[in-house]
Design a protein that fits this description.
alpha/beta; binds FE(4)-NI(1)-S(5) CLUSTER with Oxygen; Rossmann fold; six-stranded parallel beta sheet
């Protein structure tokens, strides 16, 4: 492949070096497989293909020719809306099922069935108890935690009222949802109802369908994801500012390298503890390694770096490249965003892919079932497997790129408040006087359809230059970490207002707020700012963006962000253009209905301009300079 074509694949130097290496070794990556999919199916891209019953598959001619209806009579509006809803349901399910697992871990920890887990943040436990009106006087932490877990579990299946965390929202927003009939009820219930409504012959009205899509996504953002975040903090500690190192250069030539990849912190926290075990460290030395090095990938990486400063090896599109370094003894995976291609690639090296979740088996991987009741023991067994595998490494095939970059992460809501001196006032004052023009949340994945990390970094740099405070999660935050944007020194690249605020508070202009479920932290900040100013979230100078999104989780996220009143710019096109009505609703009329809409803009510089226009518009309406 010529250099120019390769350079269009990524802006990350470590990735480019490893792509050249992959080519030299004759190994394929997601980029190659994407090229082989071209041209991608036009019906699929437009969302006009329906496979919801066996009279089909049906598709609609997007150019107005025949057919214009599926066998059942469903037209493009119905089909596109139904497909969108199913993507929202899958995304909400992924986040919320992760949330449920964390709730169960807390319950088991509280009832003595998961002895390796403790309550690490008692203050948060007590704050949640107070918020949920759970009695805490004279009761043990375990009793309180068990009640909180029970209250959380209640929200998944059989809720008669609505979600507890909606109380965090301004009254205006809750009233609007109630008026529109989109106040989420049980988390599972909304997801099930998507599957019901999108079955043949149920809901055919695209507006009615999309309203339910909003309700389902809101049950993720203000339910499943928020529970995942809150209770992970209780169990593993609420993040505080912490330093770490990012990119593939964190892998160690002379140590056992273990990568933890996936999403749930339950196992990875134990792996980090197991890697400190003196007996395993001794075994590593006996095998000729200088130590055991743990690094993270994707959102497991984010969970660990937020709480422990564990190095992060890369974001979504770098998972295959990590294996191509030839220096990884084990990649331990749980759920979500783990490419099925990994096992085939690992077979070309000594790397063991170790799957751990009953929900996610990978043919070709070694499966070590993870159980909370013997978490640390299982984690030690897995680490031992990796250590023993060090002897199988072929030093001649080891190729670790040099690139690595320091970062500062750990900006939970609590950490942000503490950096501000315990109150939101300094932030509100900076927004009011215009030193900070607004806040942009940039989140989401990588996608080989667009240049890896280019959208994330370009949009982030452009916005901080214009005095917008940027908060990030997921693969976006890892992109910024690799580029050095998560360092306090990056404030030098910011506009004068933001720079002064960051320098006074000694914080970076881009705050890493965690994994993708932690976008719930961003919702909490948005609600708190709205409450402090006495306005609805939709009136604030806030914006969201997902420049390189690809997963169904991102569809749910985007939907709950606009449902929460926050304008959102997508960098890759969602498969809705086959219905003019659905596209117009999502990018236009939604603003009148819920106070926010999507925009689609693949050029991050133009996306930045859209966001600046939006922020200026909101500021003007609030009478701010
Ligand atoms: O949940 S940003 S590629 S890793 S889906 Fe996946 Fe997308 Fe990365 Fe985290 Ni989020």
């Amino acid at each position: 492949m010529d250099q120019e074509k390769r350079n269009r694949r990524s802006v990350d130097p470590a990735t480019l070096v490893m792509l050249a290496r992959a080519e030299k070794e004759g190994l394929e990556t997601a980029w190659d497989r994407h090229d082989r999919q071209e041209p991608q199916c036009g019906f699929g891209l437009l969302g006009v293909c329906c496979r919801n019953c066996n009279m089909g598959p049906c598709r609609i001619d997007p150019f107005g020719g025949e057919p214009q209806k599926g066998v059942c009579g469903a037209g493009a509006d119905t089909i596109v809306a139904r497909n969108l809803l199913r993507a929202i349901a899958a995304g909400a399910a992924a986040h919320s099922d992760h949330g449920r697992d964390i709730v169960e871990t807390l319950l088991h920890a509280a009832t003595g069935q998961a002895p390796d887990y403790q309550i690490k943040d008692r203050d948060k436990l007590m704050a949640l108890a107070a918020e949920l009106s759970i009695e805490h006087e004279g009761r043990s932490d375990q009793e309180i935690a068990a009640d909180i877990a029970a209250a959380a579990l209640e929200e998944f299946g059989m809720r008669k009222g609505t979600l507890a965390f909606l109380n965090r929202l301004p009254a205006q927003r809750r009233e609007l949802w109630s008026k529109l009939g989109i106040t989420p009820r049980g988390i599972d219930r909304e997801i099930v109802e998507v599957m019901h409504r999108t079955h043949i012959g149920v809901d055919n009205d695209h507006v009615n369908l999309i309203l339910h899509g909003l309700r389902t996504a809101l049950s993720d953002g203000w339910g499943g994801s928020m529970w995942a975040t809150e209770l992970s903090d209780v169990l593993f500690g609420t993040p505080r500012p912490v330093e770490g190192v990012s990119n593939l250069g964190v892998l160690k030539e002379d140590q056992v390298n273990i990568i933890v990849h996936g999403h749930e912190p339950t196992l990875s926290e134990m792996i980090v503890a197991a890697a400190r075990d003196p007996e395993l460290l001794e075994l590593a030395q006996a095998k000729g390694a200088r130590g055991i090095s743990i690094s993270g990938m994707c959102c497991t990486g984010n969970e660990l770096l937020m709480r422990h400063g564990v190095p992060v090896a890369g974001n979504f599109l770098q998972q295959e490249l990590a294996i191509i370094t030839g220096a990884v003894e084990a990649m331990i995976v749980d759920v979500q965003c783990i490419m099925p291609a990994l096992t085939g690639l690992a077979a070309c090296y000594h790397t063991e892919i170790i799957s751990t979740s009953p929900k996610a088996r990978f043919p070709g991987a070694k499966h070590v079932p993870f159980e909370e009741k013997s978490a640390l023991k299982i984690a030690k067994d897995i680490v031992r497997l990796a250590v023993e595998n060090y002897a199988n490494r072929n030093p001649e095939r080891v190729f670790i790129p040099e690139e690595k970059m320091k970062f500062m992460a750990g900006f939970s809501v609590e950490a942000i408040l503490s950096a501000l001196g315990g109150t939101l006032d300094p932030l509100l004052d900076a927004i009011k006087d215009g030193s900070i023009k607004g806040i942009a949340a940039i989140v989401g994945c990588n996608n080989p359809k667009v240049t890896h990390d280019y959208g994330h970094i370009t949009l982030t740099e452009e916005l901080i230059k214009k005095d917008v405070l940027v908060v990030e999660t997921g693969c976006t935050a890892i992109a910024s970490a690799k580029k050095g944007l998560l360092l306090p020194e990056a404030a030098q690249q910011a506009g004068p207002g933001l720079r002064a605020v960051c320098e006074a508070l000694k914080i970076p202009p881009v705050l890493h707020m965690g994994s993708c479920v932690d976008i719930s932290r961003i919702l909490v900040v948005a609600a708190a700012v709205a409450n402090a100013l006495g306005v609805d979230t939709s009136e604030l100078p806030l914006a969201g963006a997902a420049p390189e999104w690809m997963s169904e989780k991102a569809v749910s996220i985007g939907t709950y962000v606009i449902g929460s009143g926050i304008y959102t710019v997508l960098g890759t096109v969602p498969p809705v253009l086959g219905s003019e009505n659905v596209a117009a609703l999502l990018t236009g009329r939604a603003s009148e209905v819920i106070g926010a809409a999507f925009a689609v803009e693949s050029d991050p510089l133009k996306a930045a301009a859209l966001i600046m226009d939006h922020l200026e518009n909101k500021r003007a309406k609030l009478g701010l300079p």
